[in-house]
């Protein structure tokens, strides 16, 4: 299971990196952060308590889905939305696994974070995220 989760984390990082390339190469925006600012996207509404996405990744995918819809890439927008609404049993256990093991092996990419506030300490961020996961 850990190798599958590791692959998911690698693919998620690649997806976000390729999304930035798509935005820069095929639109008038320099990146999703600029798009979010100019379009007034309220990305903080993004919620993903599926146990696999960090808050900034959920916000990125939420905004990227809006970008894809604006660019009439409806199929990609739908697939991106699926990443956000995917749900796993025992999401809090999965989140613990992601943050304690997988983040050490494949660290999340914060370079593309939409929120420009100063970064919290990683352990503090993990603790807040863990306790914020609703029980199912």
Extended strand count = 0
Task: Determine the N-to-C terminus distance.
Answer: 21 Å
- What average pLDDT do the residues reach? 79
User: What would you call the structural class?
Assistant: mainly alpha
SSE pattern:
HHHHHH
Which geometry do the CA atoms define?
Answer: globular
Radius of gyration: 15 Å
Beta percentage is under 5%
Question: Given the structure, what is the number of helices?
Answer: 6
Largest sheet: none
Instruction: Estimate nothing, just give the exact number of structural domains.
Output: 1
What order do the helices and strands come in, and which of them pair?
Layout lengths: L1 H25 L5 H8 L15 H16 L3 H12 L5 H15 L16 H10 L5
Helix pairs in contact: 1-5, 3-4, 5-6
How would you characterize the overall build of this protein?
The structure is a single chain. The chain has helices at 2-26, 32-39, 55-70, 74-85, 91-105, 122-131. The protein has one domain. Helix 1 packs across helix 5 (91-105), helix 3 runs antiparallel to helix 4 and helix 5 packs antiparallel against helix 6 (122-131). The mean pLDDT is 79. It is globular. The two termini are 21 Å apart. It has 136 residues and is mainly α.
